[in-house]
Structure formats: C-alpha cells, structure tokens
Amino acid sequence: MKKYRVLLYYIYVRINDPETYRDEHHLFCIENNLLGRIIVSREGLNGTVSGLVEDCEAYMAYIRSDPRFAATQFKIEEHDAHAFNKLHVRVKDEIVNSDLPVDPTRRTGRHIEPSEFKEMMHDPDVVLVDMRSRYEHEVGRFKGAITFDMENLRELPEHIDEIVHLRNKKVITYCTGGIKCEKASAYLLDRGFENVYQLHGGIIRYGLEAGGENFDGKCYVFDNRVAVEVNRVNPEVISTCYVCSEPCERMVNCANPDCNRHVPICASCGQKLSGACSDECLTHPNIRPYDGTGNYSTQSNHYNPRQGFTSQRKKETSPQSPLLRTSSNSN
C-alpha cells in the first residue's frame, strides 16, 4: 500500500453559514496536513484532497461526523505523494459551476452503480452522454459516448439540440466523479428526456470498482496527476500530440502564459519546444521555465483561518497598524 491517498467527493446538502464552516474546515485540513481544493456552498461540499493515509482517514471521519455530511461517498485512490502543492478552501455560489436552473436534491437522474453501468452500456437502447469539458473527453471517454464541444457545464443548454432526438432512449450521463451529472441529468429531465440515469461516482469509481472496461484513454483529474489510468481490461490511447500527432496522453499547459493552451504534448515535443505548443509560443518574451511537466502552479494568497483570527484580534487592540489591517482582510 502506498503512503498517500487522494480523496474525491461531493455532497448536495444545505449549509446555512458557508463562510463560518469554510474556516472550520480549512483549519482541520491545516492541522491534519491535507492539501487540495475544496468548495463550500449553501448547496453543499465538493472537494479533492490528498494526504497521508492516516490523515485522510481522519478527514473522512471528520466529514462524516457532521450529520449533514454523513452520507458522503469518497472515491479513494492510492498515490506516492501529495497530489497538490497547496490548500484552497473557498466559498462559492455553486459546488460545480453550471448556472442550470435545477435542484438535484429534488429531482435528478436515477443513480446506477458501476456494476449495473457495466451491464447497461451494452444495451442497444442505451446512449452514453459525456458531461465533461472538451479537453477532458479528448484525452479519455467511453466507447461510443456522445461528447459536446463545450468549455464547461454552463454551455450544456447550447448543445441540447444535438441529442434531442434521443429523448425516448435510455440516456446515461457520466463525468469524472459524478457531481456534474447531478445537475446535468436533472436538466435533461426538465427538457423532456424520459429515461435518464447517471453513473454514481463517475468514471473514477467505475475504474476502481468495475475495472474500467470500455473507457478509452485516461481520465482527466484536477490535481498534479493530470490524467489517471481507468481501464484495466481493454485500454486504448485515443488522444494525439498537439505538435506531432503521435499517440499521446500527456496533458500539459503551453509554457506561453498568454496562450496557456491545455493539450496533449508528448515528452519529445515538450523538450524540443521547452513546453510551448508552437514555434510562435516558444519565442514569447514571457515564456515560463519548463520543468518537464508542463504544469504551472497558480499563485496563492496563503490564507490561513488561524492567522486571520489572530490578526483580527490584534487589529482590535491596535487599530492604527496598517499591516494588521491588510493581514485581517486577506482571503
């Protein structure tokens, strides 16, 4: 067993005071050496975190000890090290950006477990619909699945006409961990689709529990691993290098920050172009140093709830200190 784990989870449930809970949650992660990205919203929680096995066990127990989150399902993967460089715990309006006028706690597509999905995908009356972004499904997707040329889930309404003729089929939606499908499947039901299902736990859980059969390529993930293996039965490489067109599953960001194109680029072309996606980007004056990965960490404001609370108390006793005022407002 490897020393580290990566946890992927979400839960739709009412959180009345997300700002207060964000700080509590953030402090727990700091105290337990966890890194990752967590979104807190009035509609629920969504997170991917990494840490040592014992720290991840403590985190799962912490989440489930709160009655609001007792039903949280975790996708657990082993890893050699932290899958993140930083910790971000943010409050947002939605736990997944969609702007779709639906409430998945009221109505959503029927959840199907990985074993049931494995059987249903061979039904000639079943249609698989990928609810992920273009750059995600280009590196990996289920055989025969319908995909949309969209940047994010907010664009789904613009693509409904592409599948409107399938309203009477059994439509199974899928995504990385299941969260997008909660709203996407609800939206399909609102648009008149009659038999809507969703893969419970998404691609990741299907790979962990059912072997990943018929998933071609790799699954894009939002951490330092970038893309992970899913299919242990009949895997195929479906993506090609953006530069040379050879088969390639290695996703990178262009080293030119003004381009920042997110595409597959093989290791050879990455070295030749110093991480750029073209000769033009290679000569850009602000090209970023290439370390062989093609991943560039964003800047963090290093917000720490404990320091924030301390700074606030100091501010109250020393209101003339501009340094303390700045510190207490950092977020």
Automatic annotation (TrEMBL):
Residue ranges, compositional bias (Polar residues): 294-311, 318-331
Keyword Cell cycle part of the UniProt annotation: no
Rhodanese domain mapped to chain residues: 122-215
GO terms under biological process: tRNA modification
Keywords: Oxidoreductase, Transferase, tRNA processing
Superkingdom assignment: Bacteria
Annotated region (Disordered), positions in chain: 292-331
Protein's name according to its UniProt entry: tRNA uridine(34) hydroxylase
Organism of this sequence: Salmonirosea aquatica
Gene name in the database record: trhO
